[in-house]
């Protein structure tokens, strides 16, 4: 028996939301467990395909699976249902299974919309999916009744729900997905201690209890993936730093094993202190995202984030002081949002001085407290999701808000952040800890590149990005001879056509990194722009067999 696990495409095309193109971690966990139990399983990512349904059809024809499982979010539920039709069109005997948040929260509704749907795996899916597959493998006629955590069709069109499955107590009992698949999103825990009213996590992981992998299991996964060529990770825990002792143990193992990795994480401002930040930075953490949500204390309370303003400010200052980029999540268009609350958010932005920020329009999903409150009031029903929409913006249910006003809120927040970003970067204060000097240089040079050649270089609201980049590169080199800082500064001078300065910077860098191909190319290009082709050739000769370098070599020879 073969199984295909599918990540469907979202309803709306994605331009900037890269996360929407990624396979959810849960599919890799399920696939790894099935493979360990001798049920061959492959993961299919339709989100990256130009013609998703055609691709699915060809895979089903080629693999002839017994089961096709779809990971269903609100945004991709229609693609999942269309995919189910494709599967049944190829072979009506293939069983179609839905799982994931949308399938869990809209279970009966999806059965009513999708006649091709056979089973729904509710909540945590590994053991439920494995037991279902094993029963089917033994050709048992009524496997659904024997498997906890399932929903299926019963007699007279009734949807039957089997008993709820208890959460997996020992997450380390699951096989490491990195043995079978390549991916960058990893997690140490399942669940969240928070009660955000806009988030479905509390209901998807019920009981307000967080379960953890051991530090050893978690780092073993990182190590396996690093050996497969992956060296940057997105730690996707809702609150990664909740268990301080466990996180520090993770960091210690990464350092002891000298894993050459970098990673980013998500946390809360009330789970951060100097000790954990020091260990995280030393272990490769480069960014922590915090859900600030709003500058209004009243709105934070309505959203389930009643954090003290002072704690928010302290967390951002502390994070950046250890050379970790603090990223802020803000939500706008919330219940009670006004021009005044937006000004409060702008004031908080000026106080916390984030170096990255994401601004989200508040939208409603099944499984969240805000959505359920409207359902309980009789203002919404699950029938809403028969419409071809990915989500429901809060403002559509709020008589005090409308699209134009909410759009203005978002514009004000983004402009306020980006137009002050150069000042935030210029005012960075780092802890004076000599052991961190190389990491401070790394941090400053990474940030500088976003101003010289990255996102911030292209944003019209960012003031004097090249001046900011130069300042950051030079500050980086004041801490440590950082390769990225030498190269970035030399490239910046090239971009400004200040070739003598670029040559001086590259010369200084080559004293420390003589064999750096990039620095040698940078030097050669600057010399070529000054007509010094013979000199340039000397820096290119050691790398002349490289196709990229050969172009420059040929250009020099042609001009000598």
UniProtKB/TrEMBL annotation:
Q: Which cofactor is recorded for it?
A: [4Fe-4S] cluster
UniProt domain Radical SAM core: residue ranges: 178-418
The keyword Iron is annotated on this UniProt entry: yes
Keyword annotations for this protein?
Iron, Iron-sulfur, Metal-binding, S-adenosyl-L-methionine
PROSITE patterns in the record, alphabetically?
B12_BINDING (PS51332), RADICAL_SAM (PS51918)
A single Gene Ontology MF term assigned here is: cobalamin binding
Family annotation (Pfam families): B12-binding, Radical_SAM
**Presence of the UniProt keyword Iron-sulfur in the record:** yes
Give the CC-aspect GO terms: cytosol
Q: Which residues form the B12-binding domain?
A: 8-143
The regions listed as transmembrane in this protein's record are: none
The UniProt entry, under InterPro entries, shows:
BchE-like, Cobalamin-bd, Elp3/MiaA/NifB-like_rSAM, Methyltransferase_Class_B, rSAM, rSAM_horseshoe, rSAM_sf, TPR-like_helical_dom_sf
Q: What name does UniProt use for this protein? A: Fe-S oxidoreductase family protein
């Amino acid at each position: 028996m073969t199984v295909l696990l599918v990540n469907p495409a979202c309803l709306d095309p994605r331009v900037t939301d890269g996360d929407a193109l990624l396979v959810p971690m849960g599919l890799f966990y399920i696939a790894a467990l099935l493979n360990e139990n001798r049920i061959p399983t492959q993961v299919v990512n339709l989100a990256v395909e130009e013609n998703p349904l055609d691709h699915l059809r060809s895979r089903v024809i080629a693999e002839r699976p017994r089961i096709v499982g779809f990971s269903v979010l609100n945004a991709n539920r229609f693609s999942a249902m269309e995919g189910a039709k494709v599967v049944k069109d190829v072979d009506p005997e293939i069983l179609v299974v839905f799982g994931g948040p949308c399938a869990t929260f809209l279970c009966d509704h999806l059965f009513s919309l999708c006649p091709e749907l056979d089973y729904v795996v509710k909540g945590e899916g590994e053991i439920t999916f494995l037991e279902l597959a094993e029963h089917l493998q033994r050709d048992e006629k009524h496997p659904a009744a024997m498997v906890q955590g399932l929903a299926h069709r019963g007699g007279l069109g009734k949807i039957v729900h089997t008993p709820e499955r208890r959460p997996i107590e020992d997450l380390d009992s699951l096989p490491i997905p990195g043995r079978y698949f390549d991916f960058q999103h990893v997690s140490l825990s399942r669940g969240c201690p928070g009660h955000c009213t806009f988030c479905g996590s509390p209901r998807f992981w019920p009981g307000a209890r967080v379960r953890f992998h051991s530090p050893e299991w978690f780092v073993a996964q990182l190590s396996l993936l690093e050996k497969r060529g992956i060296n940057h990770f997105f730690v996707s825990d809702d609150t990664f730093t909740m268990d301080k002792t466990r996180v520090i143990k993770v960091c210690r193992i990464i350092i002891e094993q000298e894993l050459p990795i970098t990673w980013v994480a998500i946390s809360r401002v009330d789970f951060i202190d100097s000790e954990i930040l020091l260990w995280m930075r030393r272990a490769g953490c480069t960014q922590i995202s915090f859900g600030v949500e709003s500058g209004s204390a009243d709105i934070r309370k309505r959203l389930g984030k009643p954090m003290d303003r002072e704690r928010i400010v302290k967390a951002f200052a502390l994070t950046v002081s250890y050379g970790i980029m603090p990223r802020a999540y803000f939500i706008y268009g919330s219940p009670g949002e006004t021009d005044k609350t937006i000004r409060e958010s702008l004031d908080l932005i000026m106080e916390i001085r984030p170096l990255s920020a994401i601004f989200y329009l508040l939208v409603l999903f099944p499984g969240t407290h805000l959505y359920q409150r409207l359902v309980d009031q009789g203002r919404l029903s699950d029938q809403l999701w028969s419409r071809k929409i990915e989500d429901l913006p809060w403002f559509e249910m709020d008589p005090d808000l409308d699209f134009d006003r909410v759009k203005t809120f978002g514009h004000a927040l983004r402009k306020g952040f980006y137009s002050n970003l150069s000042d935030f970067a210029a005012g960075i204060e780092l802890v004076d800890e000599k052991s961190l000097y190389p990491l401070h240089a790394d941090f400053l040079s990474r940030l500088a590149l976003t101003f010289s050649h990255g996102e911030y270089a292209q944003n019209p609201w960012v003031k004097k990005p090249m001046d900011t980049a130069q300042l950051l590169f030079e500050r980086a080199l004041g801490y440590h001879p950082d390769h990225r800082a030498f190269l970035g500064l030399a490239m910046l001078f090239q971009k400004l056509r200040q070739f003598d300065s670029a040559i001086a910077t590259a010369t200084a860098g080559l004293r420390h990194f003589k064999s750096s191909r990039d620095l040698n190319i940078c030097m050669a290009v600057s010399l070529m722009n000054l007509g010094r082709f013979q000199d340039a050739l000397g820096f290119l000769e050691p790398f002349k067999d490289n196709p990229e370098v050969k172009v420059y070599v040929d250009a020099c020879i042609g001009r000598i």
